[in-house]
Amino acid sequence: MSYLLPAQAAAQFLSLLVYATLARWYVTPRLATLSRADALAPLLWIHVFRYVALQAFSAQRDGFPISDHGLMDIVVGDVAGSVIALASLFALRRRARIAIPLAWLLAVETAYDTVGNIRGGMQEHLLGAAGGVTWMILAFYVPLVVVSLVLLTWQLVARRNEALAAELPQPRILREATQ
Question: Which residues in the chain land under pLDDT 50?
Fold first, then answer.
């Protein structure tokens, strides 16, 4: 019996659980203390590294049984997500209004890409077929992207009426020092 499929599924599920716990306990309380732009930035940075999907070319060469069409779907979707995330970060840095539509575009693109990749993986019977670096990406990075997508969407919805650089109350120590 092959344990590859249950091992990959278990690793992905456990990574999702761990990242969700980290998000609940540490990330969401911290995001609440930041301006809208500063809260979105770390969530976007996670997506910048989605160009790691370019590794799928070597995985296919080394025996990962993905079709050329499936490979291109993964690579194009993830590289596009990477470029959108980076563009959104540059816009956030300048506090440009286009940053929020770009962040929304990333959220929609990532959701669409994730569903498409799951569907394609099922159609090509790829679940449990990954090994090496591909397995590590699927087990640890993809769940991080999914959790960050949830947090990104939550920030975009919950803070939709907030300016990018809203004034936050100064910590007490800074208020005392400036008085």
Answer: 167-168
Q: What is the pLDDT of residue 127?
A: 84
CA atoms of 57 and 75, how far apart (whole Å): 9
Q: What angle do CA 58, 62, 63 make, to 5 degrees?
A: 120
What is the pLDDT at residue 12?
94
Q: What is the DSSP string of the chain?
A: ---HHHHHHHHHHHHHHHHHHHIIIIIHHHHHTS-HHHHHHHHHHHHHGGGGGGGHHHHHHTT----HHHHHHHHHHHHHHHHHHHHHHHHHHTT-TTHHHHHHHHHHHHHHHHHHHHHHHHHTT-TTT--HHHHHIIIIIHHHHHHHHHHHHHHHHHTTTS-TT---PPPHHHHHHH-
